[in-house]
Amino acid sequence: MTFTVPILVRGYELDTQGHLNHAVYHQYGEHARWELLRAAGIAQDKFIASGVGAVVLESTIKYRNELIGGDEVSVSCDFEWTGGKVFRFHHEIKKLDGTLAAEIVVVAGAMDLTARKLIANPDEHFRNLAERPELLGL
């Protein structure tokens, strides 16, 4: 089951060529990640109260088709659990007609906020916090 969130491309998010600014793609992905966590029952304050914070270790974007102001898109978010300290998020940003605008892959971890180190088995931490772990692929 792929989770998606709708977003309208706003004028102030555009670059000088009238395209969606490259940094905004990252923001769209982050918005989709937090919305997925919230839908699974892990609001941001609940996550932080657990003593763990999410950290992005790498983010890669493949631009496929331009986005301009007024475009309506859906941003998908899927977890990929790797069995180690890191995991991946996969995002697709698509126009309403199905045109793929961008693909984003994020390598992330869950950091112990006191020790400032990645925790082992982040999937277990997410599973314990979530009310709907199946949304997270757990």
Automatic annotation (TrEMBL):
> Entry's InterPro entries?
4-hydroxybenzoyl-CoA_TE, HotDog_dom_sf
Enumerate the SUPFAM superfamilies for this protein.
Thioesterase/thiol ester dehydrase-isomerase
Extract one GO molecular function annotation from the record. Answer: fatty acyl-CoA hydrolase activity
**Matching CDD domains, A to Z?**
4HBT (cd00586)
Note one Pfam family from the annotation.
4HBT_2
Q: What is this protein called?
A: Thioesterase
Taxonomic source organism: Nocardia camponoti
